[in-house]
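chain below, 175 aa
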Amino acid sequence: MTSVKNIEYHYCHSSLSIMLKYRMSMLKYVLNRKKYPLFSFSHSKGGLTESRVLFEKMKITKFVQYNGSMYFSLSAPHWPSKAFDRMAANGGLNVAAAGTKLKHHIDNAIIGITRQCNYNCKHCYEYYNLKKKDTIPVFKLLDVIENLQKYGVGIITLSGGEPMLRYNDLLQIFK
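prediction:
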C-alpha cells in the first residue's frame, strides 16, 4: 500500500473478502434478466465463467482498490458503479464472447482528431492523409465523445496525426 497525496491505492491479489462480495453482487445481474439480458455465467457461451478462465490463463488476476472502488482492467469501469452495471447489461463481462451477439459493449473507441503531424514516418497508416486540412471542429468532437460516453464506451483514445498539435482543443475536450 502506497500513499500518494493522501489517497490510498491497494494493489491486490484476489482478496477473498472482496472477491466474495464481487461474486455476490453478480446475483443482481442473474436475478434481473430484463435489465441485464446479456449477462451470462455460461462457460459455453463466452460468459463470465469462460472469461475468468481466459483471464487466469493470461495471468490477469490482480485488481486495484482506490477510493472504495475496485478496478479490474484499464478498459472496464470501476465496480461498483452505474457504468459497471451498464457494461454488464451490454455483455461487457462476456469477454470471451467478443465479436458475437452476446457482447454489445464497446471496450475502446479511437477518434482521429487531426491530420497534422510534425513527423514524416513512412510506416504511419495515416501517412497519405496527413498535412490535409482538419475538418472536425471541437464542438463536433465533444458531441461524439459525449455520445460514446452515454453508450458506455470503456476507453476513448484521441489519435491523429499528432493530437498535441490541437492542444487548445484538447484543453476544451478534457474539461
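Residues 1-8 have pLDDT under 50 and may be disordered. Residues 108-173 form one domain.
thats it, cya
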